[in-house]
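Supplementary Methods. Inverse-folding protocol.

Structures were first reduced to a discrete structure-token string of length 130. This string, shown here, constituted the complete conditioning input.
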């Protein structure tokens, strides 16, 4: 799954690059637009547009396929852990005190502290009508 994820990220970066190199329709020109910049000296305008359109289509298709593959693998996986393992910051629950140790409440006779019931909340008084 991690291999497909790395390929997916690389395809996404390539797709962004291919989109940024395309000439915009408004005549303003993108990063690769114009005769002096980008691929201008390497190809003619139409050949560059056709090639970048094909590259964009292939990368978009590959991005879609890897997205589906990751979704299918993720839904069939029984491992519910995180995609990138890391510490969560939680600690293990405290264990019971050992035999003969003094409890934290200060009781020294070895018995558990008495259970107290919480006090009932006071009911608000109804105001007298005028």
């Amino acid at each position: 799954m991690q291999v497909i994820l790395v390929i997916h990220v690389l395809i996404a970066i390539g797709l962004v690059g291919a989109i940024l190199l395309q000439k915009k329709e408004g005549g303003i020109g993108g990063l690769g637009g114009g005769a002096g910049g980008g691929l201008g000296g390497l190809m003619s305008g139409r050949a560059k547009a056709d090639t970048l359109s094909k590259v964009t289509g292939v990368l978009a298709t590959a991005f879609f396929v890897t997205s589906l593959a990751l979704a299918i693998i993720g839904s069939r996986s029984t491992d519910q852990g995180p995609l990138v393992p890391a510490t969560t910051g939680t600690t293990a629950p405290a264990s019971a005190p050992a035999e003969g140790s003094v409890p934290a409440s200060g009781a020294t006779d070895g018995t558990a502290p008495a259970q107290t019931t919480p006090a009932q909340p006071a009911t608000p008084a109804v105001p007298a009508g005028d």
